[in-house]
Amino acid sequence: MILKLNVRGALLLTAAITALVTLAAPARADQCDDIAKQLASGIDKLKINFKAANIIYLTHPAAKELSLGCRAQGKTYANELYAKGDRKPAPQFYDLAGSAAAIIFTLPKGDTTTGATRCLKRMGLLRGDKVSMRYKRLNMECTRTKTDAAIAITRPKDE
């Protein structure tokens, strides 16, 4: 009888401790969602549209498409910013890409705006419609079609 009481008490104590630890552990939000919220609060007129898999789609008047890609298993990058605009982007598009990259990759806005502008302006007759460059430890890939220009900015995992 005494043995049953001790086992029962130990089980109740274990269950109570497990419940307390589970309740006391902070709920972790997805890091990608946190970055998207920072983007929405840091850039005027930027809105979070929806999330699908590891990509959060965003909207802004200066861009035709805007998305934030987050880390997936087996990928070589941590985060990716993708922005698509007109073939000849307006200054607002350069500013949007630079501001978003500054928030995502925690770099100064001037540096990221300069890198995005250089990448997008290098496309043309001499260099073609696809330009890849590296600026301030960021990989930038700019592409152009007959109607659109796009930029994808990533940082490798190991940096």
TrEMBL record:
Keywords: Signal. Residues 1-24 form the signal peptide. This is Uncharacterized protein. It comes from Bradyrhizobium hipponense.
